[in-house]
């Protein structure tokens, strides 16, 4: 297993309790849009066994053209040991990346794509939207719907509707409005639906989409292949 040690280049306050850590790109480190990586802190591999408490699965919120690896995460006042240590890191400190993979690449099949996300889960979709805006070939339309009860919506400079490129972005701050919108989007029986959020969020969205006629092969979730079918097969229970 290749472990890439790299340094924090910049720390951005995206919103209250949300930060983006921009990391230097190690030589030979590559990724696709929609990728997640194992993000580890110093000491995670110091013993005989890896300290899993110092490792988290994180989405990469940037594209390669931006020249940095972005990790965007929520940093609550009361948080885990991992987040507490991360809060104390500064520009120049080292972190590790390994096992990078994408479960939700942008599908260029000529269909409309709907991006459904909750809170900071929008970070997973940021690279997909940038990739699409840079090249709209073989995608008829992209619509993003994000729910964030904090009302501190993220990446509004990018998630900004652009009719010229058939891109629409929508933010809501409550579940009632959110699920009403999902029901309306599901009227497109030929669309592709990407979902990113907590496990409960995934289950609720999948169930609603299936109840409105969307099939499992139209749904993409940011989960390992071994977990995907468990989410998609249990959604109507």
UniProtKB/TrEMBL annotation:
InterPro entries per UniProt: FNR_nucleotide-bd, Riboflavin_synthase-like_b-brl
Protein's UniProt name: Ferredoxin--NADP+ reductase
Origin species: Amphibacillus marinus
